[in-house]
Write a structure and sequence with these properties.
The chain has about 250 residues and is an alpha/beta fold. The chain has one domain: Uracil-DNA Glycosylase, subunit E, CATH 3.40.470. About 35% of the residues lie in helices and about 10% in strands. A hairpin with a 6-residue loop joins β5 and β6. The N and C termini lie far apart (about 40 Å). This is Type-5 uracil-DNA glycosylase.
């Protein structure tokens, strides 16, 4: 499949995402997306060049789908896969230090069966939690453009729609994720107030469902990037506190 930036192209996420009736089908469609030429070039180049420590790896080098069970009550929304983390392993937050930090906290609060995430097939299971991102391809310098975010949005919208019957809380990691998540939540069936709530670590807001469904609790948390965790801006205890609150809201 060639890359396409044309929203009228049948291969564009705007057409591909709404047709996915299950999370498994959505994940398969996400994995084949080539809508953003800059991201396609970058993720594939990272897979060819590789880091010396991973030269024996066969990089995934495709869009990384969400991870976690269908019927999840809690969603975690990040930013985008890392070039030598999720882009290498094919699973969200797997194979890098940000993932080490996140999964250790999830395990500590009882939302994962183990604290490590090294590769697909490592036995990791999430308990009532689905992890996803507003951008599914690794971007240069970990910075997707707003256009790439918007092109990728239909995947997140459909994922949230499919989770809506069971989803009760969301943790959003970082300001970029927050700005991407709120419009996606609105498109997926929740009422986002105007003006939109501002991002902050510890921010909390409740979104009413458009239809007669339970409200959604949304929690803000600093991203688990090394620039936050190495400097102490985000500590393990801070992350665990947010995850516990979100799990309680989701009744996990």
């Amino acid at each position: 499949m060639n890359t396409t930036e044309d929203p009228e192209d049948p291969a564009h996420p705007a057409h591909q995402a709404p047709g996915a009736d299950t999370l498994r089908e959505l994940d398969e469609r996400v994995s084949g997306c080539r809508a953003c030429p800059r991201l396609v070039r970058w993720r594939e180049e990272a897979g060819r060049i590789k880091r010396p420590a991973y030269r024996e790896w066969d990089y995934w080098a495709r869009p990384v789908p969400g991870f976690g069970p269908e019927g999840a009550a809690l969603a975690i929304i990040g930013l985008a896969p890392a070039a030598h983390g999720g882009n290498r392993t094919g699973r969200m937050f797997t194979g890098d230090r940000a993932g080490d930090f996140l999964y250790a906290a999830l395990h500590a609060v009882g939302l994962a069966n183990q604290p490590e995430a090294t590769h697909r097939g490592d036995g990791l299971e999430l308990r009532g939690v689905r992890i996803t991102a507003p951008v599914h391809c690794a971007p240069p310098a970990n910075r997707p453009t707003t256009g790439e975010r918007d092109t990728c949005r239909p995947w997140l919208v459909q994922e949230l729609r499919l989770l809506r019957p069971t989803l009760r809380s969301v943790v959003v990691l970082g300001g970029f994720g927050w700005q991407a998540a709120l419009p996606a939540l609105a498109a997926a069936g929740w009422e986002v107030p105007r003006p939109r709530p501002s991002f902050a670590h510890g921010a909390r807001t409740t979104l009413r469902a458009v239809e007669a469904e339970a409200p959604l609790r949304v929690f803000g948390c600093y991203h688990v990037s090394q620039q936050n965790t190495f400097t102490g801006r985000l500590t393990p205890a801070m992350l665990r506190d947010v995850l516990r609150s979100a799990a309680e809201a989701a009744r996990l």
